[in-house]
Amino acid sequence: MDKKANQTTREDFERIFHPQRLAIVGVSAEEDGARGFGTGMLNALNAMGFEGDIFPVNPKGGIFAGLTIYKRVEDIPEKIDFAIIAVAAKAVPEVLESCRKKGTAGAEILSAGFSELGTAEGKDLENKIRGIAAKGIRVVGPNCFGIYCPRSGLTLLPGPDLSRQSGPVAFLSQSGGMAIDFAHKGKWMGIAFSKVVSFGNGVDLRETELLRYLADDQETRVIGMYVEGIKDGDAFFQEIKYTSDKKPVIVCKGGLSLAGQRMVISHTASMGGSRIIWQSILRQVNAIQVQNLEELAEAALAFCFLPQGVFKQISVVGGGGALGVTACDAAETFNMEIPTLCASIQTRVGHLLPKPGSSGTNPIDVANPFVEPKVLKKILRVTAEDKQIDLQIIISLLYHYKTMARLLGKPVSQVAPYRELAEGLRDVVKETGKPIVVILANPKRGVDDLDIVEMLALARREFLDRGLPVFDELHEAIRAIGHVNAYYARRNTKNE
Amino acid sequence: MNKGSAFQIIEIALKEGRSALSEYEAKQVLAAYGLPVTRECLVENRGDVEKTARKIGYPLVLKGCSFEIAHKTEKGLIHADIRSDTEALEAFDEIKKGLNGYNGAVLVQEMVKGRRELAMGMTRDDQFGPCVMFGLGGIFTEVLKDISFRKVPLNKREALNMIREIKGNRIIDVIRGMEAVDTEILANMLIQLGRIGLEFECVREIDLNPVIISGKNPIVADALMILQ
Q1: Could you say which DSSP state residue A27 is in?
Q2: Cβ-Cβ contacts under 8 Å, B209 against chain A
Q3: Residue-range domain boundaries for chain B
Q4: Quick one: closest CA in A to B160, which residue?
């Protein structure tokens, strides 16, 4: 492990993620009218309701949003915990050095113009930053979007409207775009964050050091990563292995090529391109590999909402044409099973279902989209009594309520009984101890049906607020549950 | 064979500026690390063919053996299922002809009987260092690419995991009247391959293909070791 990471205490990281006194270097005064990253960040922090004190810095001085702009970092009274640096690349080393001298625990450097340019000057500036970091200030970036931490109100560029709700998911990304996209995605999907770090060129803090920190971070239960390149394969391997033993690490590896870059002779080497090696390495450490950001978000959602465990046998309640076939195919692909319910349960479920056209086996086809929430609740309660069943999925056909809304002359959001359904399902989970996963299917997403889209967004929130994970599609949910199963199954055998 | 002699074989090859070991040499290194390899002798002179063939026992495989030739099949340098002195001499002559110009001799090798073929190997990944490979062998290695890798060092659990990870993992179970493969041996072979990768920085790549399953025992029937 990196020596310096050892020396950086948890207290230092606390000052980085939850700074009480924050400097933003590179804020332009109001009368100058400039809109640089620094100014944008200050506005974003204000919009987020950042809870600490902010000290803007610009050699020209002035006033911004009622705050005095200090001419130099040295002029800020007393200590600062963290600095956001958004000055021109060539000015960064000097600013960073003054932050370090002031005892700042860390800094994020939003400025671009370093090694990513490929120029000697850019590389030289980056080396200077590295040198200063080595003397005792932790650096995120340069060329990054920074840190998002809902608890303190720190936010990514340009994120004035990210959630302030803290949660168990941390996300690490070289790419700033991926970080901000994921943070926004999480907000409506129901993923709440502990920390999100976009580390850009990663001169100092990057995948390995941050993993090390998050492994023992009490606020973080699930870690997502978007990785392009890594700096030190051996160190990364050790860290991700250590971390994966404690909590799930979901990895999306970008830039995988089929073959290695070198000239090779043996078949082993020619087949050992980065794609298969990464896949194998991630299995070896019991990390979860996903193919894209969507799959990462879905997996993170499942890890957050489901209890730790393996859910092999599931029941599916829903409707729609190929429900049975689709569900069974998806389940089989991800090593799960939709077992036939035992006879007595089938009979009892059968009595609750509308006739004709329904089916009380598993998947349970309710045949009619307007089956009342209280009936659905009863069905799920009875199904849970089957000892085979570990987890239940309900495919909600709420979008059909538009037809009813039209007849009643009311908006669909007033007609669809999503709140009642959410409450009912929550009760069933509480009573039975078996998790329920909700699929909010919606084939109607065009401009004619924005009312449905809106209603489902409201419905999603009701389900999420009651601890019920929501997915758009059945196969996405099953794939995500599959990741949970694979992780805990492997972790359990490991600990045997 | 011990690790000292493995070291010597590689040392000599490096001194001669060679970029690979011959099959014969590679297998001596493997044997030194406890991997089961075919019984075989290197024959330079036509006059020694019959004696050697009888010592090992028919049926045999005769191969052109040269550090200069990585892939022998394509060059017609493998003659399998040799059942008599006459066939052995014929094969010897043809291989000698085929070797024309290359440094090399003829490898007289027991023919391992088994319908199942596996592959193993070692490569060095730019980021993760030495990694071992396991997969289906023979022509299926390239056709199906049903393989798994692990970064080394490897413990037994991980070795067993990577064996189970390939899609065709049932090939090592009881199947069509064939015994289950001894996975202890397989796992140990993978662990030892990883050790070679760790202990010899100069060994860049290793291919063991096919590893033929005879009864329940895997035996390395062909080996390639690339140096750097």
Answers
A1: P
A2: 267
A3: 3-110, 116-227
A4: A284
Nearest CB neighbour to A266, from listed B121, B158, B161 = B121
Locate the chain A residue with the closest alpha carbon to B124: A269
Q: Give me A196's structure tokens.
A: 């999100």
Fold of the CATH domain B116-227: D-amino Acid Aminotransferase; Chain A, domain 1 (3.30.470)
B224 and A276: CB-CB below 8 Å? no
d(CA A30, CA B187): 69
B162 touches chain A (CB under 8 A): yes
ipTM of the complex: 0.86
Identify which of A264, A271, A277 has the shortest CB distance to residue B128: A277
Burial of B228 (0-12, 13-18, 19+ CB in 10 A): exposed
Chain B residues lying within 8 Å of A236, measured CB to CB: 127
Residue B112 and residue B39 in contact, taking contact as beta carbons nearer than 8 Å: no
Superfamily of domain A3-302: Succinyl-CoA synthetase domains (3.40.50.261)
Of A28-32, A213-217, A371-375, A384-388, the range with the lowest mean pLDDT is A28-32
| B207–A268 CB contact, under 8 Å | yes
CB proximity B18 to A under 8 Å: no
Mark yes or no for CB contact A265/B205 under 8 Å: yes
Nearest-5° angle of CA A424, CA A429, CA A430? 95
CA dihedral A361, A363, A366, A367 (to 10 degrees): -100
Taking the Cβ of residue A237 and every Cβ of chain B, the question of whether any pair is shorter than 8 Å is answered with yes
User: Which fold, A307-495?
Assistant: Rossmann fold (3.40.50)
The residue extents of the domains of chain A are 3-302, 307-495
List the one residue out of B45, B2, B41, B10 whose CA is nearest residue B225: B10
Please report the DSSP string for A328-354 in residue order: HHHHHHTT-B-PPPPHHHHHHHHHHS-
At B111-148, the pLDDT tens digits run 999 999 999 999 999 889 999 999 999 888 888 889 99
H/E stretch holding B108: strand B105-110
Query: In terms of CATH, what superfamily is B3-110?
Result: ATP-grasp fold, A domain (3.30.1490.20)
CA distance A280 to chain B (A): 5
Three-state DSSP at A368 gives coil
Chain A's closest residue to B141, CA to CA, is: A267
pLDDT in tens, A304-344: 999 999 999 999 998 765 676 788 888 999 999 999 999 99
